[in-house]
Amino acid sequence: MYDIKTYHRADSLNKALKLLVDNPEACLVAGGTDVLIKLRHHNKRLQHLVDIHHLKELTYIKELEDGTVRIGSGTTFTQIMESDIIAQTIPSLAQALTTVAGPQIRNIATIGGNICNGAPSADATPPSIVLGAEVEITSLNSARKMLLEQFYLAPGKVDLKHNEIATAFLFRKENYQQVGGSYYKYAIREAMDIATIGCAAACRIENGVFRLFKLAYGVAAPTPIRTPTAEKAALNQPVNEDTLNKIQQAVLKDVSPRDSWRASKAFRLQIIHTLAKRVVIKAIANAGGSIEHD
Ligand SMILES: Cc1cc2nc3c(=O)[nH]c(=O)nc-3n(C[C@H](O)[C@H](O)[C@H](O)COP(=O)(O)OP(=O)(O)OC[C@H]3O[C@@H](n4cnc5c(N)ncnc54)[C@H](O)[C@@H]3O)c2cc1C
User: For a Cys-Cys bond, which of 82, 183, 204, 210 suits 96, CB 3.0-4.6 Å?
Assistant: First the structure.
């Protein structure tokens, strides 16, 4: 069933990086929940594996002195959901991860694997994008950082070279302080189903006005996206029904969903429109705001 030619278990990050250099055809495996499914199809690109699962250097959640929350890429969904640091700083990420699969998968699947797999439906991505997350990418001789929203290049493709490992995700204090976040995943089945559409919002409200507003979707385009037109319609505008309606209308200019066996394009557009309001209302409440009525 499987066609594995070589398997190396790395005992340090440095060893993993060297193994990648020495094995130009190797594929990294963390929790393996995506890789193992691809392996079943005798995928020729997956005959050589470098295993980074359980690397302590990649498995942690820290709050740095400047308030940045740093999540190692090998941290599992369960560890994130159970973290006090996450609960106190970026609770909307933990809330989003409760929608992923079941406990067995969440116990082994890593945030790094979810994001690096490049699927437009990855549930960790929209809530991280609206919180301004950055991804740290490390190779033997260098390290670089980029905004997560720029990391996705095409379906299943992220901005990683063969010799690089995504080592951490960074959430800066200025992007989460006094910010209310929310995520809703629309799926056909209530349990164990990937998103038909995923929608995340984050906002900061001062004196009844949106002073920070970000809205992102999964599966609304070939890659996860932010919604610049909708965000412009809300920024510095009063938190009221009129602005919510403008966000809903504007968001349709930002998305390009497709027809698939899971849902038609028309149905996805309807969900996108509906969720814009529903998810933003929740984010407003989580930011301590309320909606003004005329
Ligand atoms: C039954 C089932 C249900 C699921 N339901 C959901 C769901 O509801 N929502 C959802 O979003 N996902 C779901 N998934 C998908 C999956 O669990 C996630 O994408 C998971 O987070 C992947 O993490 P992993 O550690 O298992 O990655 P792996 O399978 O080990 O790796 C995935 C990819 O990322 C690469 N990679 C891993 N770590 C790194 C790193 N640190 N740096 C660079 N590249 C790396 C690997 O080379 C591979 O290409 C489901 C999977 C299963 C089997």
Answer: 183
- Inter-residue contact 123 to 110 (CB < 8 Å): no
User: pTM higher than 0.85, yes or no?
Assistant: yes
- Token pair recorded at residue 285: 């409440």
Taking CA atoms, 5 is separated from 92, 124, 170, in Å, by 41, 31, 35
**Which protein residue's CA is at the shortest distance from atom 9 of ligand 1?**
100
| pLDDT tens digits, one per residue of 161-198 | 999 999 999 999 999 999 999 999 999 887 778 899 99
CA–CA separation, 201 and 217 (whole Å)? 9
249 alpha carbon to ligand 1 midpoint, in Å? 33
Structure tokens belonging to residue 251: 């968001």
CA angle 96, 199, 145 (to 5 degrees): 75
First-to-last CA distance in the chain?
64
d(CA 41, CA 221): 27
